[in-house]
Every structure is written in C-alpha cells, then in structure tokens.
Design goal:
mainly alpha
C-alpha cells in the first residue's frame, strides 16, 4: 500500500489503524522515504501493544510530518478521498457499496 501522510493522519485521528497494523504502516513509510528513529522503531515492533505504540508514535508522526487533527476534519478528508476515487473509477457508488456489503457478510 502506498504511504500517504495526509490519509494516515486522518486514519489515525479516527482510530482506523490498529496497533498490530502499525509496523506495516511504518514499513510503508520507510519505503516512501520517511526515515528516522521513530519510524524504524515502529517498523521493528512485532505484535505491538498499545503502550509500545503510544511510546513511539509521536516521534514517528513528526518524521512523517503529520499532526493530530480533529475527527471532523479527518472524516471529511477521507470522505473527499473516497468520492474522488469513485469519480475517477467511473463506478456507480451504489453498486460499489452493494458489493462491499456482500463481501463483508
């Protein structure tokens, strides 16, 4: 997955990234050129606890040049991204949601 700081910032604000997903996120950040001690420490964690993540995430966020945003701003950012993706794909949004519902059940 491509590391997009503005999307990660929104996902973090909405708690959409679990602690066990943090190492993969940090690895994606490294591949995207965001390097630093916080990112490397986060990438090296194996099944991290919330306490381990809380300890290193603020430093990693600095290295990724992201901050803490409101949940309203985060939700709006992700909604706009989803709308752009749907428009760019040319897919019918209703059909997309129906297919997702089928997959999720």
């Amino acid at each position: 997955m491509t590391f997009e700081p503005e999307i990660v910032e929104a996902q973090l604000a909405l708690n959409l990234i679990g602690t066990t997903d943090m190492p993969k996120l940090a690895q994606d950040a490294l591949e995207a050129g965001f390097d630093g001690p916080g990112t490397r420490r986060l990438a090296a964690l194996d099944f991290p606890t919330i306490f381990e993540v809380r300890k290193v995430l603020p430093l990693a966020m600095q290295e990724w040049q992201i901050g803490v945003i409101s949940s309203d701003s985060a939700a709006l950012r992700l909604a706009k991204r989803r709308a752009r993706d749907i428009l760019a794909s040319g897919d019918d949004p209703w059909v997309v949601e129906q297919l997702k519902a089928l997959v999720d059940t």
